[in-house]
Specification:
The structure holds 2 protein chains of 2 kinds. Chain A has a single domain, classed as Immunoglobulin-like. Chain A is 6% helix and 43% strand. Chain A is built from 2 helices and 20 strands. In chain A, the strands form 5 sheets. A 5-stranded mixed β-sheet of chain A has the order 2-9-8-4-5. A 5-stranded antiparallel β-sheet of chain A has the order 11-10-12-18-16, with no helix packed on it. In chain A, a hairpin with a 5-residue loop joins β19 and β20. The N terminus of chain A is likely disordered. Chain B folds into 3 domains: 79 residues, Immunoglobulin-like (Sandwich); 101 residues, Beta Complex (Ferric Hydroxamate Uptake Protein, Chain A, domain 1), CATH 2.170.130; 508 residues, TonB-dependent receptor, beta-barrel domain (Maltoporin, Chain A, Beta Barrel), CATH 2.40.170.20. The N terminus of chain B is likely disordered. Chain B starts with a helix and ends with a strand. Chain B has 5 helices and 42 strands. Chain B is mainly beta. The chains are: A mainly beta, B mainly beta. At the A-B interface, α1, β1 and β9 of A face β18, β19, β23 and β35 of B. β9 of chain A pairs parallel with β35 of chain B.
């Protein structure tokens, strides 16, 4: 709690350094999201997991790595997001070829990997767990590790196993608009505005509280925007907000824009726009 | 008829007239008694009564000269018309205190190693933002440099291990937002006491140390007051007699620094302040002498801090930090106190503090709300059995009834590196919590012989904590050895415990099986007063301390919190105070080696392990000017490097991967603060102004590390830049 109280004065002095790389600008190899066929599953369910990656400066290279799958070691309580040392962990090799896979080469080397990492939730995952944990969900994690440019890029996501019955679905892919219209062939310039239109409404879902009562809650979409050129005034917005280009796309290179939409409980979808 | 008139004129011309007058101290209007007033050339003399009043009778013709010459005051020598009937004489003192409302008092030291600041010391301390006592306490030996933090870190302990008290009663916080100002107006504070390692049995529940602010008693001689304005706050204080037996003091302050911030913020696209951050505090004291032996004092302390803002843009590294943000912290304490003398050898003191704490943190609809009704109680009886035996027996109890509403993810900040807001485990619940902290103590002072050098203090403290169902027996033994009237050795050893914080021991969201952290303190030291009963010269103190820390509460993946933390603190401190004429100076040095260990991490430096801490303070008074400066050099504080980060694709944040805990240090901290003050004395009031410039050299003094969104880039965040403060005050 004290840490939270101390957050307050920090707000006045913690403006990000202008020399730091901007979160919305695509350049080095990055994982922008990890997409699953099902964010929530029942025990013993199978899930296909796809990293959504970007490597615009990689020139179509192959990136090698691994993926690990295990029970969440307690990331929400401070555990390192890793399956190392976790009982029952599975580690397999994994690679992405940016020159031959998907449509990377014609879409600015940004998109969803073609090869899924397939994981199976153990049938015994609920054994020994409290009924509240079973209802709200017990998380497994999938951790991708890539060795790129002499550094390790790590990204993970949770697969939630629940006995709730109604499991979460990914949001429908949203529409990404430029100045209120679909993207055309002209690259954005300074002052242009990006907006996002979801194609479905946020879901409602149920949570069991500490005292055992069932509480109904509504999802709230969070939007992350990425561009390969220019700068945005806001990279993280809510569904009703917009983001304005602070800088124009001046390079002769192709232009890529990506929107990721998250439902705050593992659901993720995306839309990509590309201008050659 | 004409003859009769002429006779009358003649009679009047030859008769005496009366010159009635009063002698005051210039500026303060203090009546001066027993002052000789001479009238020339008649060579007449009068002596002022206790109200400063005098009467002279003299022939009412010609020119007269009034002369008053009193030690400590400038000579008054003025020609007056002998026909004058009334005369007010204002004598100007040669030396005025920093503020004439300043209290001159002695620090009451039951513990030989205790440190203290009287009002006249802290009110003029450079770098104390206009004399704030708690900020000035950072100049004391053993107190760490804490940058902009609103914390007092004592002898390498953790910030939460310091207990804050007002008139002996615990308060939830001692600083307003940002640590610029403590919650009591400085001029109402009689003294600040810092009880470091080895402190006596009167206090407990703080394994690091104790800070106590003692509010002054109102003045009874006449009405006093002052008002001030500076760049951050305005305030006023009034005090004086209500009757022969009772007196009052009222004070209040309001900070408008938020309006400046609001103006700046509203020109930013990043956020807008919907309510300017403000803080205010108020104080009231009522004192009544009930009988010859009994006194009643009631004190009301209230404080409020409030801020509301809208973060228009999400933080780049933490998208959930956006939207409305509100933080309110307020508390009040009403402290009635009864002191008395039961007989020639026995005194007693009883007090309560009744109050309420309110904390609200709201981050875009996720909140923490705490409403806590609290009552603390102290009673003490002091009995002098003989010249060699004296006992103090007391109770020290605290009762809390808290309503807590939480809808926040838990926070994880091992090594001082905070995980993103949205990653933590979601916590949502309402709960009520009752807590009783019961304490009793015995302090005994025993001297084997009346004239011998030894004083032995076999002290005992008992504590019971209802939440953890623990009872502790805490022996605390102190000795003093008087080598000479001006030189004394002292030692102390004792056991200290403090209950875990409510969020740690809560069965709902903490660990209901948690135990209380504890510590064993060892200290040895000596002091010598080279002034030999004078006021000029050198005072020297030198203490060494060692503490073991056990059952420290640390975050636990399996149980939320556990008692697996341990630590040791080793250090030494010295303070040399020198006064000669208008000069006075201090050298304060602390050496510290503070370590912690937790399973899986081994031993590492504590967060505030500042190996060397040197403070140099110099002040000079020159006529109505007072100049002072402080230079500090402190070893860079340790911090935990971040070796990488893992992208959390669900929350769209990077979770930092910590390197070895506190394995790196910031560059050496050094800062120069200067202060100048000028006083102008008018007949009936005094005008003062001051300029206080913090960090004159504008040294960057890194205090934190800033990272890019993915932790691949970093830079040190600088501390306080050069910060001038200007203030004006009038007092009477």
């Amino acid at each position: 709690m004290k840490g939270l109280l101390l957050l307050l004065p920090l707000l006045f002095v913690s403006c990000a350094d202008d020399n730091f790389r901007r979160v919305e600008v695509l350049n080095d190899f990055r994982v922008l999201g990890i997409v699953t066929t099902d964010p929530e599953v029942s025990a013993a369910g199978d899930v296909d997991v796809y990293p959504y990656v970007s490597d615009p400066n990689g020139g179509g290279r192959r990136v090698d790595g691994t993926y690990e799958f295990c029970r969440d070691p307690g990331i929400a309580f401070g555990a390192t997001p890793s399956c190392v040392g976790v009982a029952g962990a599975v580690t397999l090799s994994y690679s992405i070829n940016f020159s031959s896979e998907s449509d990377f080469a014609t879409r600015g080397y940004t998109g969803q990997a073609a090869t899924p990492a397939t994981v199976t939730v153990p049938a015994s995952i609920f054994t020994g767990s409290a009924s509240r944990a079973q209802f709200n969900g017990i998380a497994m994690i999938v951790v991708f590790r890539f060795n790129v440019d002499g550094r390790e890029v790590t990204a993970f996501r949770r697969i939630v196993a629940t006995n709730r019955g109604a499991t979460n679905d990914n949001p429908a892919p949203p529409a990404l608009n430029l100045n209120g219209n679909p993207f055309g062939a002209t690259k954005p310039v300074k002052g242009d505005v990006l907006t996002v239109s979801p194609l479905n409404d946020e879901e409602t879902y149920q949570v069991q509280t500490v005292d055992g009562t069932i509480e109904s809650r509504a999802e709230s979409y969070e939007v992350a925007l990425y561009v390969s050129q220019g700068e945005l005034d806001r990279s993280k917005i809510s569904i009703n907000e917009s983001s304005e280009f602070k800088e124009s796309s001046t390079s002769s290179r192709s232009f890529t824009a990506v929107v990721m939409i998250r439902d705050e409980r593992g659901g993720l979808s995306f839309t990509r726009e590309f201008i050659p | 008829m004409k003859g009769l008139v002429a006779l009358l004129v003649l009679l009047l011309a030859g008769s005496a007239w009366a010159l009635n007058g009063k002698v005051w101290e210039k500026g303060t209007k203090k009546p001066l008694a027993d002052v000789n007033v001479f009238l020339l050339p008649a060579k007449l003399k009068a002596v002022t009564d206790p109200k400063g009043v005098f009467t002279l009778e003299a022939p009412a013709s010609g020119a007269c000269q009034v002369i008053v010459n009193v030690t400590g005051y400038k000579k008054y020598d003025r020609a007056v018309d002998c026909a004058l009937n009334e005369l007010s004489i204002y004598l100007e003192k040669i030396d005025y205190g920093i503020y004439e409302t300043t209290v001159t008092s002695k620090v009451v030291k039951r513990d030989a190693q205790a440190q203290g600041l009287t009002q006249e010391e802290f009110i003029s301390m450079p770098g104390s933002f206009g004399g704030d006592p708690v900020r000035a306490a950072q100049n004391l030996p053993g107190v760490a440099q804490s940058g902009g933090s609103a914390q007092i870190i004592v002898q390498g302990a953790s910030p939460d291990d310091t207990g804050y008290f007002i008139n002996g009663h615990r308060v939830p916080l001692i600083f307003h937002f940002g640590g610029l100002s403590s919650v009591v107006i400085p001029q109402a504070v009689e003294r600040l006491d810092l009880l470091p390692s080895g402190y006596g049995p009167e206090y407990s529940r703080a394994i690091g140390g104790v800070i106590n602010l003692q509010v002054k008693k109102p003045k009874t001689d006449r009405h006093h007051g002052f008002a001030y304005v500076d760049l951050l706050t305005s305030g006023a204080m009034f005090e004086g007699p209500l009757s022969e037996k009772s007196s009052y003091l009222v004070a209040a302050r309001y900070s408008y620094v938020g309006y400046v911030l609001q103006a700046v913020a509203n020109s930013s696209d990043d956020f807008e302040l919907t309510t300017a951050p403000t803080y205010a505090d108020a104080l009231g004291v009522y004192h009544r002498k009930l009988t010859e032996n009994w006194d009643f004092t009631s004190t009301l302390v209230a404080s409020r801090d409030n801020l509301e803002l809208v973060l228009n843009r999400a933080a780049q590294d933490d998208p959930q930090l956006r939207g409305n943000f509100e933080n309110t912290r307020q508390f009040f304490r009403f402290i009635p106190q009864l002191t008395g003398r039961l007989d020639e050898r026995t005194t007693t003191e009883h007090s309560l503090a009744i109050g309420r704490d309110h904390i609200l943190v709201d981050v875009n609809g996720r909140y923490l709300k705490i409403e806590s009704d609290t009552m603390t109680h102290r009673s003490e009886v002091v009995r002098t059995w003989s010249p060699t035996n004296k006992s103090y027996v007391g109770l020290d109890n605290q009762f809390d009834l808290s309503k807590v509403r939480v809808n926040l993810p838990n926070s994880y900040d091992l090594g001082g590196v905070q995980n993103p807001f949205g990653v933590g485990d979601e916590r949502k619940f309402d709960t009520e919590d009752k807590e009783a902290l019961l304490g009793a103590y015995l302090r005994h002072e025993y001297r084997p012989s009346e004239t011998g050098p030894w004083t032995l203090l076999p002290n005992l403290r008992l504590d019971h904590f209802s939440n953890t169902h623990e009872t502790f027996v805490q022996p605390r033994f102190q000795t003093r050895y008087q080598i000479s009237p001006s030189t004394e050795w002292h030692t102390a050893i004792g056991r200290y415990v403090q209950p875990p914080r409510p969020q740690e021991s809560s069965p709902d969201y903490g660990n209901g099986d948690l135990r209380s952290p504890e510590s064993i303190h060892y200290m040895v030291g000596w002091g010598r007063d080279f002034r030999e009963n004078g006021t000029q010269g050198l005072q020297f103190t030198n203490n060494y301390f060692y503490k073991t820390l056990d059952s420290l509460v640390i975050p636990s993946i399996a149980d939320n919190y556990s008692n697996d933390g341990e630590g040791t603190i080793l250090g030494g401190e010295l303070q040399a105070k020198y006064q000669r004429g208008p000069w006075n100076g201090q050298v304060v040095y602390t050496y510290l080696n503070s370590k912690r260990s937790i399973p899986g991490q081994g031993e590492y430096p504590a967060e505030f392990d500042q190996t060397h801490n040197l403070n140099l303070i110099l002040a000079r008074q020159y006529e109505r000017w007072n100049f002072s400066g402080r230079f500090r050099v402190v070893s860079g504080a340790p911090y935990t490097p971040v070796s990488g980060a893992s992208y959390d694709a669900d929350n769209d944040v990077y979770i930092p991967i910590r390197g070895s805990l506190y394995a790196r240090r910031f560059p050496t901290f050094h800062q120069l603060d200067l202060r100048a003050e000028r006083k102008t004395i008018y007949d009936q009031w005094i005008l003062s102004w001051y300029v206080d410039v913090q960090n004159v050299m504008n040294t960057p003094n890194a205090s934190a590390v800033e990272y890019s969104y993915d932790y691949r880039q970093k830079k040190n965040r600088r501390g306080l830049p050069i910060l001038p403060t200007f203030g004006v005050r009038g007092e009477f």
